[in-house]
Amino acid sequence: MTRVQAKICGLNDAVSVKAAVDGKADYIGMVFFAKSPRAVTPAQAAMLTEHVPDTVKIVGLFVDPDDDLIRDVLAVARLDLIQLHGSESVERVLEIKKAFNIPVMKALKIAEKIDIENANSYVGAADMLLFDAKAPKSMENALPGGNGLVFDWRMLANVTPSLPWMLAGGLDAANVLEAVTISGAPCVDTSSGVEVKPGVKDPAAIARFLEAVRTI
Questions:
Q1: Which end of the chain has fewer CB atoms surrounding its CB within 10 Å, N or C?
Q2: How far apart are CA 81 and CA 99, in angstroms?
Q3: CA-to-CA distance for 99 and 87, rounded, in angstroms?
Q4: Which of 126, 186, 134, 127 is nearest to 160 (CA)?
Q5: In 3D, which of 3, 7, 19 has the Cα closest to residue 201?
Q6: In angstroms, how far is the first alpha carbon of the chain from the final one?
Q7: Closest CA to 58 of 37, 74, 34, 43
Q8: Which domain holds residue 174?
Q9: Are 183 and 161 spatial neighbours (Cβ–Cβ below 8 Å)?
Q10: Spatial contact of 88 and 64, defined as CB atoms under 8 Å apart
Q11: How many CA atoms lie within 13 A of 189 on its CB side?
């Protein structure tokens, strides 16, 4: 079995970035969405990622961004992957990919099987997919991601998405083995699962999560 990869998202302080790098995360994510408690500015992202080795891919998370925001980030910070976590259409994903010549990952919110089947529409536009839990309409102050919600991983069993993909949604050190075993995920992504409260990462929890992934 190929080694399962891991992404730590929503990093916004130097200690947590170091914990992710030291723990051998494959990806680290920076959030450029002002309403998120994990948001960073382009300048903060540049400072936090200045010494991140090339072996760790830096992901910029955007929610329905305009080109100017992406351009402002790229002017000062390295991004290896653009993550689109809003309601971006297939056409918009392709537009961003062509405009910036950087691989693009489209996040899809999952509540039922049809949400996964819709992923095929992004073939040819996105380079990767991320399956995250869809927040219920009744959830107050729900964010586009990082809500700590889990969806039914069985929906991904025996499904082979047409693009490389990651699994997100309420993952932590305690449930990531079960999540991968059921879904077959080749890569896992956590944010709230390694926090003491929204926007505040726990370096020890980051280390535990990455250790748990390594043992799969």
A1: N
A2: 13
A3: 18
A4: 186
A5: 19
A6: 9
A7: 74
A8: 5-214
A9: no
A10: yes
A11: 27
Single-letter residue type at 75: A
CA–CA dist 45, 14 (Å, integer): 10
Distance CA 206, CA 200 (A): 12
Give the containing element (helix H, strand E) for 31: strand 27-31
CA 99 to chain centre: 21
* Residue type at 25 in one-letter notation: A
CATH of the domain at 137: 3.20.20.70
Q: Looking at the 3D structure of the chain, how many domains does it have?
A: 1
Q: Of all residues in the chain, what percent carry a pLDDT higher than 70?
A: 93
Average pLDDT, the chain: 92
pLDDT confidence of residue 140: 56
Q: Tokens 């949604």 — which residue?
A: 169
Q: Which residue do the tokens 């914990």 mark? A: 19
Tokens 């709230």 sit at which residue?
192
The DSSP call for residue 173 is T
43-204-49 Cα angle (round to 5): 20
Asked whether the beta carbons of 190 and 145 are under 8 A apart, the reply is no
Assess contact for 103 and 81: CB atoms under 8 A.
yes
Q: Are 191 and 29 in contact (CB under 8 A)?
A: yes
The reported pLDDT for the residue numbered 1 is 58
Binning pLDDT at 50, 70 and 90, where does residue 43 land? very high
